[in-house]
Amino acid sequence: MSGVWIFNNGVIRLVENPNQSGGVTHGRRNVLVYLPTGEVVSSYSSLEQILMSLGWERYFNGDPNLIQYHKRSSIDLISLPRDFSKFNSVYMYDIVIKNPNIFHVRDFH
């Protein structure tokens, strides 16, 4: 059983899969921010330009339902859903961890 417990007016209930529609959580959504410029990543084309400038390359030998990037200097692989509307905080944090001090995930109201 996964989800979030909500307490409202003395009643507690489980809301299953609250993030199913992407990075949306209770009226907020997360955004990926490129720290050197403060730019909010709003498309895969802008993300790809940034990743390539950081030494990431497209990886075409994987799952056809994913867009993937790898770095020759590491074993890391970034896998993203082809549909940008499904790009949520899980994928954002994966990018943050693999690019320390370059990206940040923030709440966007």
Secondary structure topology:
Elements (H helix, E strand, L loop, with lengths): L3 E5 L2 E5 L8 E2 L2 E7 L4 E2 L3 H10 L2 E4 L6 E6 L5 E5 L7 H10 L4 E6 L1
Antiparallel strand pairs: 1-2, 3-4, 4-5, 4-9, 6-7, 7-8
Total helical elements = 2
- Residue share in β-strands: 35-45%
* Helix share bin: 10-25%
Radius of gyration: 16 Å
Main beta sheet strand tally, sense and closure? 4 strands, antiparallel
End-to-end gap: 28 Å
Point out poorly predicted stretches.
21-25
**Oligomeric state of the chains present here:** single chain
Taking all residues together, what is the mean pLDDT? 85
Backbone shape: elongated
The SS-based structural class is alpha+beta
**Could you tell me the number of beta strands?**
9
Short description:
The protein has 109 residues and is α+β, with helices and mostly antiparallel strands.
Summarize the structure in words:
InterPro entries: FPF1. This is Flowering-promoting factor 1-like protein 2. With 109 residues, this protein is α+β, with helices and mostly antiparallel strands. Helix content is 18%, strand content 39%. 14% of the residues are buried. About 5% of the residues have low confidence.
Descriptive labels:
3-stranded antiparallel β-sheet; 4-stranded antiparallel β-sheet; 2 helices; 18% helix; 109 residues
